[in-house]
Amino acid sequence: MTNSLKDVGQADVILLTGTNTVENHPVIAQMIKTAALSGDTKLIVVDPRDISMARYAEIRLRPGPGTDVAWLNGMAQVIISEGLWDKEFVEKRTEGFEEFRRSAKEYTPDLVHEITGIRPAELRKAARLYASAPSAAIYYAMGITQHVTGTDNVMAIANLAMLTGNIGRPGTGVNPLRGQNNVQGACDLGALPNVFPGYQKVADDTVRKKFEKAWGVKLPARPGLTVVEMLDAAGRGDIHAMYVIGENPVLTDPDANHVEAALEKLDFLVVQDIFLTETAEYADVVLPSSASVEKEGTFTNTERLVQRTRAAVEPPGNARSDMEIITDLAGRMGYEQKRTEPAEVMKEIASITPSYAGISYNRLARRGLRWPCTDGKHRGTKILHGKKFARGKGRFHPVDYIEPDEMPDKKYPFILTTGRILYHFHSGSMSRRSRPLKEYVDHGSAEINPSDARCLGIREGSPIRVNSRRGSVDTTTRISSRSPQGVVFMNFHFAEQPVNKLTNPALDKAGKIPELKVCAVSIESL
Amino acid sequence: MADTIIRMNGKRVSASPGHSVLDVARKNKIFIPTLCDNPQLKPAGYCRVCLVEDLISGRLITACDTVASSGMDISTESPRVLNARCRMLELILMNHPETCVICEKGNTCELRQLASGYGLALTSEDRIGCLEAIVDANPFIHRDLSKCIGCQICVRACREIQGAEAIEFTGKGLRGRPLVAGGGELSGSACELCGLCVSLCPVGALMERPTSHRGIEDRSAAVICPYCGVGCSLYLEVRDNEIIGVRAGVPGSVNGPSLCVKGRYGLDYVGHTDRLTQALVRKDGELTEVSWEEALDLVAKRLGGIIKKHGPDGVGVLASAKVTNEENYLIQKFARAVIGTNNVDHCARL
């Protein structure tokens, strides 16, 4: 997030898109809902599904899945043609506006209507509301990013924020909501194939030399592979061993049949986890690790806030923390990790990661710090891009609408979109082992629009089979007008209904994110 | 606006503009009992336990929703105040069921604390019958509205803090009850089962299930919730190495008093019997328990062999969005510095 959660209530307008916040980030949803109820903040909710946040919205738009660039460009077109953009901000803080203006021009409300189904008057209303607010914030999540055009979608959002000067001030910003308790931290600390901690590029010689000096070894310069690419490489026989920690790709990665085949093909698979997950079933070695509440350390949340977490209970049996396991193994493979206490490791991190340089356990004892926090006196950064952008001037990136990789056709006439529900989490390895959560919901279903259900001749609870080009999944019908006509929603929490057997592994070229939000499926009654 | 000066129990105290008599008392460490007050909610004046006397007008006023104004002379413990306060408490107690003795709320019950402080108890005289069905409509919340004291904290919190407006108050005073807005059960309503109402209920009307006695914690620790990326803080209450309670309200936290259904009720997976407790190695097709020594030696040997044969890029490492920053740092360092590959990623895109 460019901004912090503290300023949710300071926005005059919040545009929420591709985020079913009530179910995925319930406590942020609570902040947004109370802001909306206070009357001081108006919501624009843009989502193909009739999500419950819509109840609080001033304006709600329901574009077809995968058409985000079109309506985002359309909003920009309306704002420009009606002269509602922030001329001073665009002039002083950005570059590339003329090119952007030219490219956005063709996205007239009529064209946008044709592509997305959003009525021209509604699009105009939303554009005016967003552009005329003194402070307007955009919040989004995987509904924006999990597309082959994920990067384009984010660019289109950034264009809109820059166009209206809604960046760098309280109550504004471009705010992605992160889905895992430490997904932000894992990215920050370099668990990515192209960057070291603090997003320092592995291909940059100066950076690499710094890390070589700090770690005392020669380091590889060529960026590595992402999760989906690694599994592809394993399938091709280019990767021979994998070491998987606290992840369950068999249920969470697209095209699960392909993932299983890839794992089968590996010469050696290590899985380190707290439960014997579906992925661990394929392992040659399984290492028992401790749960997060069993260890000391820090997590970084969606607003870049680094916070301490404490050990509340002891790990069971012979389970060990991931830190202990990995340092022990490094030692056996000839590398001595000298600092082994969490606070000491944070010192090591701070010494080579400029954005974490001012973070220490002493400072975190009472409250968290938002990065960048560049030295021991720096108080952290609540709002990014305040006076200038990281690169100097903010650059407009013209982007064009491209169809999703796989569109419905005669054989597969429905769009499948996937996500989470409030009562479970990701592959269900944790939430399905919680007694009350399991008691409340313990099966998956496919959410289908009533008119589609009528055409298919299925009723609430009817057993159905959902097929895509990659596989089939049996589930039960849940009839609800939350899903628009022609769209089926399924969650991926239940191994008995492995939805990712259906999903499309096509990747966004730049971000390498798979298009989990759109694929073509057929439905048959069982 | 400048502070105003009022008298409280004979002392001159200053009151900030807009502050209630209760706020002023609290600031000056003068105790006024309350049942329907919660600092995070707008004052309501429902329970009337916070009655104080304005010695100038001679009126009894509710301290929580009366703004302190210049020239007031307040007594928080005059005989009239004590008498009226005890009458209010007695009235609530008359409406309270005898199951009090086995109520799991125990001594954390605010009604019990106040009653005992004023030397009151459940009496058999003049009891007002109020049998209500105990409802366990979902696996999270145990509802015994016979114990409801009509403070409406649940309804107010659902609206003011949670923004859900899932419940509404029907009826008046001690006879009123919180009910699902629009009727029906919680599961079909706007309720997200966040449990905020349960956590703020001053008595045993709304309780977490199961309600059997789980004892008192030996200790508690502040942790970050392991589920989504909001970064909510919570206290885990622990007894004999088992989590027996989850509580919000860690100072300076992102979430304040709020949590979601998973954070509040879904952490028992930690103690699940499925937890892995021993290293496993596949032998003759079966995962077999081995020592750490054997498992780690095998991993080092096999990875070493594959690196030798296929080069470091023949290995891929998946770090985790569930482990700590320090661990992620060490994992990517392991991939880069020990194995020698940049093939390291995690589920950021999934």
What is this entry, summarized?
With 526 residues, chain A is of the alpha/beta class.
What does this molecule look like?
- The complex is a heterodimer of chains A (526) and B (350).
- Chain A is an alpha/beta fold.
- Helix content of chain A is 31%, strand content 17%.
- Chain A is built from 19 helices and 21 strands.
- In chain A, the strands form six sheets. In chain A, strands 16-20-17-19-18-21 form a six-stranded mixed barrel. A five-stranded parallel beta sheet of chain A has the order 3-2-1-5-6, with helices on both faces.
- In chain A, helix 3 runs antiparallel to helix 6 (109-116), helix 3 crosses helix 7 (120-132) and helix 3 (68-81) packs parallel to helix 9 (150-163).
- By secondary structure, chain B is α+β, with helices and mostly antiparallel strands.
- Chain B folds into five domains: 4-90, Ubiquitin-like (UB roll); 125-208, Alpha-Beta Plaits (2-Layer Sandwich), CATH 3.30.70; 219-271, ADC-like domains (N-terminal domain of TfIIb, Single Sheet), CATH 2.20.25; 276-303, no CATH class; 311-350, no CATH class.
- Helix content of chain B is 24%, strand content 20%.
- Chain B has helices at residues 21-27, 79-94, 110-117, 153-160, 196-200, 261-265, 292-310, 325-339; strands spanning 4-8, 11-15, 51-54, 59-62, 73-75, 134-135, 141-144, 167-170, 177-180, 206-208, 219-224, 233-239, 242-247, 280-283, 286-289, 315-318, 344-345.
- In chain B, strand 1 (4-8) and strand 2 form a beta hairpin.
- The interface between A and B is large, with 151 and 113 residues.
- Strand 9 of chain A pairs parallel with strand 16 (315-318) of chain B.
